[in-house]
Design goal:
With 133 residues, this protein is mainly alpha-helical. It is built from six helices and two strands. The chain has helices at residues 8-13, 31-39, 56-70, 82-85, 93-106, 113-122; strands at residues 49-50, 53-54. It has a two-stranded antiparallel ribbon. Helix 2 packs antiparallel against helix 3 (56-70), helix 2 packs across helix 5 (93-106) and helix 3 (56-70) packs across helix 5. The longest helix has 15 residues, at 56-70. The protein is globular. The two termini are 27 Å apart.
Length: 133
């Protein structure tokens, strides 16, 4: 795995002590895995984030962005909409179940691209708004 976002300045400022072009096992969690860990009580959602932004909403946004990226729709972490943007108290049980489905489909090394495409096509709450297309 590679973290292409971190440049030399960011690696220095964030005290990154590993090679971001060959991430060691355990130094990076796909969003779907982090989501499952938080939902199962194995991890504190507040431990996931950056620059003072953390929590379940942060992980949920990354779960949606992973689904989009696997569907060739790459967006910035600052782009927010629908399922990715809602406050935790606005997420219904159905919304949580959607995130669970997305997380299950996207958190493995062997992603079924037909499944993630079908998820994107059938879950309207993850579709990009017109101004982001």
């Amino acid at each position: 795995m590679v973290d292409a976002q971190l440049d030399a300045l960011q690696r220095d400022q964030l005290h990154v002590d590993f090679d971001t072009t060959d991430l060691p096992t355990g130094r990076f969690l796909p969003a779907g895995r982090a989501w499952r860990m938080c939902r199962d009580g194995e991890a504190d959602p507040e431990k996931f984030g950056i620059l003072g932004m953390s929590g379940r909403w942060f992980v949920r946004g990354n779960v949606v962005r992973d689904l989009l990226a696997l569907n060739k729709l790459e967006v910035s972490p600052w782009d927010t909409w629908r399922l990715a943007a809602r406050d935790d108290d606005e997420i219904t049980d159905a919304g949580l179940a959607l995130c669970d489905r997305i997380a299950s489909a996207t958190h493995t090394d062997d992603v079924d691209l037909a499944e993630v495409r079908a998820l994107y096509e059938t879950i309207e709450d993850v579709h990009l708004p017109p101004w982001l297309k």
